[in-house]
Amino acid sequence: MRPPQIWQQRLVSRPRLRELGRGVRSAVEPAIRRGFHLYWRMSRGLTLGVRGLVVDEAGRIFLVKHTYVRGWHLPGGGVEPGETLLDALARELKEEGNIDLVDEPPLHAVYFNKRVSQRDHVALFVVTAFRQPAPPKPDHEILAHGFFATDALPDDTVASVRARVAEVMMGAPVSQRW
Hints:
Layout: H1 4-10, H2 14-43, E1 47-54, E2 61-66, E3 72-73, E4 76-78, H3 85-97, E5 100-101, E6 107-112, E7 120-127, E8 130-131, E9 142-148, H4 159-170
Parallel strand pairs: 1-7
Antiparallel strand pairs: 1-4, 2-3, 2-9, 5-8, 6-7
């Protein structure tokens, strides 16, 4: 049997273990997050989400890019138990864009979102009365954000966002599907 001091010298140092753990976590975490998100969406009955089409004084649209899905999206998310639609919208806008509602925004439409499940619906609000005390800081959920002119949306803006912008900003007919 080896003396204890030699055995201890062969062990990986604690800082090195922490570094290895962070590397594994950063590699695996996005897949785990997507899996939990999918489970959460599929395991519930009827699901309801909110999105905000936030329009600044220059007519630009606020979009976010998530860490767990591709493309640029309108800020928003799921309505939690006990929340109203407006409570959920205010929470999501604050979390994803550091945006505070100044006045109650009008509800534009409610859409069926078949891509998520056969029971998912999304309420879209048009937000023009807001303040953004400071730009949001990218975090584990939001990779990037910005205000974009309607004729200069990023190339990878998702089709549902382009359709909502066309409805609200250009008078296109309102669809029943997200």
